[in-house]
Amino acid sequence: MRLHGGTHSGYTQKVRVALAEKGLTDIVPFVDVPKAERGPLHARARNVLRLVPVLELDDGTFLNESSAIIEYLDALYPARPLVPADPLRRARMHALDHYQDQALTPPYRRLWNALVEPGGGDTETIAAARHAFVGVFRHLDSVLEGPYLVGDFSLADVAFVPRLQLLPTLGLEVPAELGRARAWVERLRARPSWAETMFPPVR
Hints:
By secondary structure, this protein is α+β, with helices and mostly antiparallel strands. It has helices spanning about 10-20, 40-45, 65-75, 85-115, 125-145, 155-165, 180-190, 190-195; strands at about 1-5, 30, 55, 60-65.
């Protein structure tokens, strides 16, 4: 198997974090697919949507979507599980994975474009994106079930790592009054997978 993805892709980063957590980095090597090469050939061979990451399976077929890839690998290699066995915690894991997509990624992209990309952005866009980040942290502070989002470390936590890794670049931090969320981010930073996968996800 091989993981086809983008060095600066947050969703590729998500799978790379999962691979590091499960000790699969050497078993499932990473193949960088530059954005310029994600055209018709990539679409025909790997993903009709021309998106990354894509997992190339041993039989030559492909599996796309970061969460699906992680769940497949988690079932194939059950050591260090990332998907809870408990049905309710597993459902909450899926809900928080989806929440990251819907609530954190959009303001992250707006803020990145405003602060990092040439041309910058207006102060209103920047302020609104920062406000959205605070709202996400406030929600996570209220739903944490233990040291991690659904108790034990899971795919839910993995989903947030690529965006959280770039908080300093965006001049963001978890508000001081949200102690549970701050402690959660510090626990994520302390995990070896954080340092092992430190590529800047842009899109």
